[in-house]
């Protein structure tokens, strides 16, 4: 999704893609290769002026080695590690004094049991690395369930992260861009509705959020971006906890254009993708103003309909205002394959939400009846 | 510029490009070839589901032959000829009873002199084919000047078009999309300011236009689109003549996404490029509502600054709200190499216009002082 932004600015992209990656169908230039192989990365880096990312799974040690070899990385490994490793992130948030759930690093079931007792059940056990979209996350409701987590202490990780399961009112995302020049620009804080660990719906801006809390979440995002030296887009995923002093707690970080920012493609003056391109090239950042009172984003995941294109007419006919995005990926159950944005230009959030959900469901299930 | 729209919809583009064409840097798949060579066209057509165009210079006889061979063309040669041949177009507008300047087909200087006498000087002499951006157009103010036009009657054209030089208040453009299914959707009528034959500035919607005239121009565009069977985007370029009954006269037709519609990339719910893709694929058309009270488009043509990218920081820093578009073309004096869109979200057209002009000039001249 960075390609349209790059094309509009006349910037050339070269994509290192997995074989079954959508980028192959959309970027001017691509190389198919394994991002966990150092030599592949180094050869690719030789062909570009700056390297950036659309996921966080490139091994930190490879990034460090590339950086030591003089390759401009945006963000660099020193920043990216906070999105790659949840324990490193928790330690940093604590150091910055930012609000977060009670947490511990645990290396054995005994340590887990002691920590969970201290934190109070239910707790959430997480692998520090490799988890995303709800993977690598285990909710433990009792010592009995904690005992069953023994299988996770298998030597893949030095320690696991255990933290309080926060009783939140909703989930939020505070996105900020930080340029290589140090300039930052925050987007409005949005509400995200997670389904099976995926940000399924986004309401932008978050409709039931105090200005004070939104502002303070944006400030937290700026503190993080500056402290860890982010370049590009940073998403700070938050729990909305109005009963706490700050009103929010930090959940996770993502250091790239993020699912919770897809609404900006149609709903903000500068999309997160254009902003990311600007930031990693050291260009001045664009205005982040929303275009409509509200914009809604609804994902569609792979389901029984494999002919998405065949379902477009029904969705487009019913919702001429909907902005339908398809990633050109093959359909697999549960895979993120597209999303729908709807602008509530008249301020009617509920109507926009209903339209986005229905349009996405028409495509997902191949409905032609509407 | 169709590429971002196609990418967002998950539609694959294959571009037949000239060697020095921007498409080469932006489309997933391209073939470099000569669009005036039938075999090149036929081989290219074999690789795609539907063929469309971003200019009107593919020879009509080649298009006819491709169509006869069963290649889906959108638009087809039967429609495209009205954008390719100004005499054919004038005859059709007359047949449809649509308002246009007084005109004649002339095959010799003697016929030209008689027609100009009849129409009244000044007149405009045009080659029916091959002219664009002010090329192939000659304003004649007197019989003496008409006499000098003898050189144009050189056998390249069976006849030339001579027409009244209209004393217009402004120039307008009425864009409409028509799908292969026959569905049409009109965009707001815009005002265009032409410089040296190029639509240099667009104000959308046209600020000093009666609703009645705008509506009637949209109806004329719909009549044309349906009568000649357009598929894709049609731009009807108009003279605004408030003293006439209709309030406008038809100048020219363009049958593709058009310079006067670039404002829609950022200023309308559905851009002309997405609309064109939808139309040629037979998908339902998108809403054409403007996003802001006004949007301004300002072209930048090639000038002394060849390092456009180097000028981006100054323009972006001064105008974080400006949407800068660069075509990735090499800079040649007078060549269209990019444009700037500015949304007047607060309704202040003059401020948006000033910002768009200044941002474009910073890039064009490589100013870094601001």
Please give a structural write-up.
The structure is a homodimer of 370-residue chains. With 370 residues, chain A is α+β, with helices and mostly antiparallel strands. Chain A has 3 domains: 83 residues, 3-Layer(aba) Sandwich (Rossmann fold), CATH 3.40.50; 63 residues, ATP-grasp fold, A domain (Dna Ligase, domain 1, 2-Layer Sandwich), CATH 3.30.1490; 196 residues, ATP-grasp fold, B domain (D-amino Acid Aminotransferase, Chain A, domain 1, 2-Layer Sandwich), CATH 3.30.470.20. In chain A, 33% of the residues lie in helices and 24% in strands. Chain A contains 13 helices and 15 strands. In chain A, helix 1 crosses helix 11, helix 4 runs antiparallel to helix 5 and helix 12 runs antiparallel to helix 13. The longest helix of chain A is centred in the middle third of the chain and has 18 residues. Chain A is globular. Chain A starts with a helix and ends in a 5-residue tail after the last helix. In chain A, 49% of the residues are buried. At the A-B interface, helix 1, helix 2, helix 12 and strand 14 of A face helix 1, helix 2, helix 12 and strand 14 of B.
